[in-house]
UniProtKB/TrEMBL annotation:
<dbReference type="InterPro" id="IPR029066">
    <property type="entry name" value="PLP-binding_barrel"/>
</dbReference>
<dbReference type="GO" id="GO:0008784">
    <property type="term" value="F:alanine racemase activity"/>
</dbReference>
<dbReference type="Pfam" id="PF00842">
    <property type="entry name" value="Ala_racemase_C"/>
</dbReference>
<dbReference type="InterPro" id="IPR011079">
    <property type="entry name" value="Ala_racemase_C"/>
</dbReference>
<dbReference type="GO" id="GO:0030632">
    <property type="term" value="P:D-alanine biosynthetic process"/>
</dbReference>
<dbReference type="InterPro" id="IPR020622">
    <property type="entry name" value="Ala_racemase_pyridoxalP-BS"/>
</dbReference>
<dbReference type="InterPro" id="IPR009006">
    <property type="entry name" value="Ala_racemase/Decarboxylase_C"/>
</dbReference>
<protein>
    <recommendedName>
        <fullName>Alanine racemase C-terminal domain-containing protein</fullName>
    </recommendedName>
</protein>
<dbReference type="GO" id="GO:0009252">
    <property type="term" value="P:peptidoglycan biosynthetic process"/>
</dbReference>
<dbReference type="InterPro" id="IPR001608">
    <property type="entry name" value="Ala_racemase_N"/>
</dbReference>
<keyword id="KW-0413">Isomerase</keyword>
<dbReference type="GO" id="GO:0030170">
    <property type="term" value="F:pyridoxal phosphate binding"/>
</dbReference>
<keyword id="KW-0663">Pyridoxal phosphate</keyword>
<dbReference type="InterPro" id="IPR000821">
    <property type="entry name" value="Ala_racemase"/>
</dbReference>
<feature type="domain" description="Alanine racemase C-terminal">
    <location>
        <begin position="211"/>
        <end position="338"/>
    </location>
</feature>
<dbReference type="Pfam" id="PF01168">
    <property type="entry name" value="Ala_racemase_N"/>
</dbReference>
<dbReference type="GO" id="GO:0005829">
    <property type="term" value="C:cytosol"/>
</dbReference>
Length: 338
């Protein structure tokens, strides 16, 4: 199960989906009905699971487009029963249990009543059961083990009720790396699919490379004197005569603004200091005596043409996560498939 929600974690959901749709057994997971419908409009025919809580006003669209839906509340079950009674059909359902995220999902103590409802309504098309780990990408796995134990107990109660789910899934990227005994018969791979570590606490013992290189073009270079202030607030002052380049990319496009303090870009295999605060549309780089050309690209993160800056490095330095950095890539960013 390949998670392409939030525009494929900033990579471009459609491009990612098209690249792997024909691989055996690929199922896509997204969050909203609109994301799912967009994939369908572009010809993606794979099964698609919608993570958001169901809304009665889009059940027709889910059914017409063969979308799988998340069922996470007693009201959802009743709404789907009513829908089936009215239409004679219903979208395929995956039952979600909350085992420790305190987010969407039935509580564990509701398992018997949920399974009793399903047994009393065998016409409802239930194919999957799942949960989600809160700490599987951390060094301390005790809470993840607690969640897994609870999920196994819920599965046991389903078996006792005579319910056999086609798909049982709990593992996210962290669990794929950290908890191999949590795989069941399907896993949901998100960040790891893009070649990025889900956190700095989990070992990347897999051979993957970052899928995306985030780059920006140089649009102006000027020679300035020592003592020249650069960008808003004048927090950066040149220490000597130097070349300051303007890169046409800003925080509105996904550039991580706090990175300017100790950050750098890569150009022709060398790193160069970001000069001052990033602006909404542009930022500046101190190139010293190197004179880059207009139109040349600098690398912000990723790996390209001998340049490499792991997005994980930036996340640690500025105290955020790779999820935040990658999903922020938006705005006027052009996605080029190589």
């Amino acid at each position: 199960m390949c998670v392409v929600k939030a525009n494929g974690y900033g990579h471009g959901a459609l491009s990612i989906a098209k690249a792997i749709a024909n691989k055996p057994g690929i199922i896509f997971c997204i969050f909203s009905i609109d994301e799912a419908l967009e994939l369908r409009r572009w010809g993606i025919k794979n099964d698609i699971l919608v993570f958001s809580r169901i809304q009665p006003d889009w059940l027709d669209q889910a059914l017409d487009n063969d979308l799988w839906i998340n069922v996470s509340h007693q009201d959802d079950l009743q709404a789907l029963k009513d829908y089936h009674d009215k239409t004679g059909s219903c979208p395929i359902m995956h039952i979600k249990f909350d085992t420790g995220m305190t987010r969407l999902g039935f509580d564990g103590w509701e398992a018997e009543s949920v399974f009793q409802f399903l047994c009393e309504n065998p016409h409802l098309p239930v194919e999957g059961i799942y949960s989600h780990f809160a700490t599987a990408d951390e060094g301390d796995l005790s809470y993840a083990e607690f969640q897994l134990n609870l999920f196994n107990k819920i599965i046991g109660k389903a078996n006792e009720a005579g319910i056999d789910f086609k798909y049982v899934h709990c593992s996210n990227s962290g669990a794929v790396l950290n908890l191999p005994h949590s795989y069941f018969n399907a896993v949901r791979v998100g960040m790891l699919m893009y070649g990025v570590a889900p956190s700095d606490e989990v070992a990347m013992d897999v051979d993957v490379e970052p899928v995306m290189s985030f780059c920006g073009p140089i649009v102006n270079v000027r020679r300035v004197k020592a003592g020249t202030q650069v960008s808003y607030g004048g927090v950066y002052t040149t220490q000597s005569d130097t070349n300051i380049a303007v890169v046409q990319m800003g925080f509105a496009d996904g550039f991580p603004r706090p990175w300017y303090e100790n950050g750098y870009v890569s150009y022709k295999g060398q790193n160069y200091k970001i000069a001052g605060r990033a602006c909404m549309d542009q930022f500046m780089v101190d190139f010293g005596d190197v004179e880059p050309g207009d139109g040349d690209e600098v690398l912000i993160f990723g790996k390209k043409d001998g340049n490499r800056i792991p997005v994980e490095t930036i996340a640690v330095e500025i105290g955020t996560t790779t999820y935040v950095l990658l999903t922020a890539v938006q705005g006027r960013t052009e996605r080029i498939i190589l």
